[in-house]
């Protein structure tokens, strides 16, 4: 007769494994938060120090203590530590959102009442002093043209430099390029403006002003950001993809452009958008190089061009109705950056490698 073998011990019966411990119900965090808010309100009301800030701060402290003690008694130390860490991370995220939400609310509140179709479709020709007319049509197109020119200059240089550092760079030259990229990442924006101003003054004379001067200054600021972001994205591409391509007899250059760049296209587009967002709001280099104009200038190589950051600065400096125009320009600039990010996301999603069929 066959003898039965003892069953293997399950996870729930093994010593030291806590999977058999009871868990708090799903509603426990919400109930604890409600209890903390009520208790905090009662304490602050009795002390005469009731305010929104104090209520939120005390509620968070009471919630963190209560949920940790409750979890410790019911679930054990591991789950209690997990709930404490979750609370700390959530609070930190909320604190980080406060300045962002405050900034957006202030810009929307002050700019929404100014931004109209007329404001977006007119320029500042013939507008002086406290006149309520005038708009930012010329500044919108100036910002788009100058930023587009800076992108055309910096993105090819940044991508090719990143390819060199990741795929080819070895020895002193690669270390030197990396060092100078790190240095360029930290230069003040006014230094980039002075560089572009000096360069074009030496080439064309001190009276020369053109949009390409501002584009060059912005390109100096964009290039190290593009290099760093693209470099990191290329390093994330698995070496197995490169080796598979080489095994099929594909050249290294074709592998880079058809396999590596295609795989990292999502991160590359995101890095380029970060670089654009880094420079599209710069004021100092544009104020130094291209100044301000009252009408649209479509020629990047001749004459001053208005941009939204410089327009907002000048209008705020003017005071009066100019402050309202400055808030309207700031809101429009935020909307442009948001639209560019949405477009970049769509492009990255379309060109990203398909993982499923």
From TrEMBL:
Work out whether the entry's keyword set contains GTP-binding. no
CDD domains assigned? TM_PBP2 (cd06261)
Q: What biological process terms from GO does the record include?
A: phosphate ion transmembrane transport
Subcellular location(s) per record = Cell membrane
The alphabetical list of record keywords is: Cell membrane, Membrane, Phosphate transport, Transmembrane, Transmembrane helix, Transport
What GO terms are given for molecular function? Answer: phosphate transmembrane transporter activity
Query: What InterPro entries does its record include?
Result: MetI-like (IPR000515), MetI-like_sf (IPR035906), Phosphate_PstA (IPR005672), Phosphate_transprt_permease (IPR051408)
- The segment(s) forming the ABC transmembrane type-1 domain are 140-348
* Entry's transmembrane regions: 27-46, 52-72, 84-108, 139-165, 177-204, 210-227, 259-280, 326-348
One Pfam family assigned to this protein is BPD_transp_1
Please report the record's description of how this protein sits within the membrane: Multi-pass membrane protein
An annotated GO cellular component: plasma membrane
Question: Which NCBIfam families does its entry note?
Answer: 3a0107s02c (TIGR00974)
What's this protein's function?
A: Part of the binding-protein-dependent transport system for phosphate; probably responsible for the translocation of the substrate across the membrane.
Q: Which family does it belong to?
A: Belongs to the binding-protein-dependent transport system permease family. CysTW subfamily.
UniProt name for this protein: Phosphate transport system permease protein PstA
Q: Which organism is it from?
A: Jonesia denitrificans (strain ATCC 14870 / DSM 20603 / BCRC 15368 / CIP 55.134 / JCM 11481 / NBRC 15587 / NCTC 10816 / Prevot 55134) (Listeria denitrificans)
């Amino acid at each position: 007769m066959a003898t039965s073998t003892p069953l293997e011990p399950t996870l729930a019966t093994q010593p030291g494994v806590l999977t058999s411990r009871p868990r708090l119900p799903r509603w426990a965090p919400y109930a604890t938060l409600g209890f903390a808010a009520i208790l905090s309100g009662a304490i602050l009301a009795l002390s005469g120090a009731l305010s929104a800030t104090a209520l939120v701060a005390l509620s968070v402290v009471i919630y963190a203590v209560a949920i940790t003690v409750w979890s410790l008694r019911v679930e054990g130390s591991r789950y209690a530590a997990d709930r404490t860490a979750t609370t700390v991370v959530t609070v930190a995220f909320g604190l980080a959102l406060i300045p962002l939400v405050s900034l957006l609310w202030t810009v929307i509140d002050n700019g929404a009442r100014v931004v109209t179709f007329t404001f977006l479709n007119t320029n500042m020709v013939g507008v002086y002093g406290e006149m309520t007319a005038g708009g930012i049509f010329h500044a919108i197109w100036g910002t788009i043209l100058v930023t587009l020119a800076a992108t055309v200059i910096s993105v090819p240089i940044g991508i090719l430099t990143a390819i060199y550092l990741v795929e080819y760079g070895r020895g002193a030259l690669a270390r030197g390029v990396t060092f100078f990229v790190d240095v360029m990442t930290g230069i003040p924006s006014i230094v980039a403006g002075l560089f572009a101003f000096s360069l074009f003054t030496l080439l064309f004379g001190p009276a020369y002003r053109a949009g390409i001067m501002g584009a060059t200054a912005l390109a100096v600021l964009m290039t190290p950001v593009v290099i760093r972001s693209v470099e990191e994205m290329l390093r994330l591409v698995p070496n197995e993809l490169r080796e598979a391509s080489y095994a099929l007899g594909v050249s290294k250059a074709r592998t880079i452009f058809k396999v590596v760049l295609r795989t990292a296209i999502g991160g590359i587009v995101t890095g380029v958008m970060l670089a654009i967002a880094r420079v599209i709001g710069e004021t100092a280099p544009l104020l130094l190089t291209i100044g301000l104009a009252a009408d649209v200038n479509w020629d990047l190589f001749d004459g001053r061009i208005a941009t939204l950051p410089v327009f907002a600065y000048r209008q705020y400096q003017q005071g009066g109705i100019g402050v309202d125009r400055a808030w309207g320009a700031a809101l429009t600039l935020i909307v442009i950056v948001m639209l560019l990010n949405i477009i970049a996301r769509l492009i990255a999603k379309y060109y990203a490698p398909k993982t499923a069929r």
